[in-house]
Amino acid sequence: MVTNRAVSVSLDSVRDKNLMQLKKLNSVLFPVRYNDKYYADALASHHFTKLAYYSDICVGSIACRLEKKEDGAIRVYIMTLGVLAPYRGLGIGTKLLNHVIDLSSKENIGEIYLHVQTNNEDAINFYKKFGFEITETIKNYYVRITPPDCYVVTKYIRQPQSEK
């Protein structure tokens, strides 16, 4: 454990040459195996998908998909966000999420959302700290894990400007 030392955390975009690191992280972090479409979407999101390095060791990632809504607006879907257990609590997940929030704001993207299993209180509380709110419950979203229900957790970035 690191004590009273500045933590050196850097982020790097996911590309073909380091995609295997994302695959390895996912195999350790998540109870499901992701298909080729997941990785194609992650690569297509460019700077929205990042690997996190702690002292040059790949310890976390955020993988996003950019989606076009019916009105033509773009929104960000966070497919996965995870940090290896020994490196949790060091601000790495915060840095990854803040990156996506800041980039969304810069690119005038007004909505970020994700699915969270209904019993994952740690994740729900984590996202709430960043202004995300539960906007929907989907029954039987997950097939092979219990409980099968999820929340849709959403952050709206650009609020309409009020008339003065």
Automatic annotation (TrEMBL):
CDD domains listed in its UniProt record: NAT_SF
Keywords, sorted A to Z: Acyltransferase, Transferase
Name of the gene this protein is made from: NAA50
GO annotation, biological process: mitotic sister chromatid cohesion
Gene Ontology MF: a single term: N-acetyltransferase activity
Keyword Transferase: yes
InterPro entries: Acyl_CoA_acyltransferase, GNAT_dom, N-term/lysine_N-AcTrnsfr
Organism: Helianthus annuus (Common sunflower)
Coiled-coil residue windows: none
Domain N-acetyltransferase: 9-158
Top-level taxon of the source organism: Eukaryota
Name this polypeptide is given: Putative N-alpha-acetyltransferase 50
GO cellular component labels: NatA complex
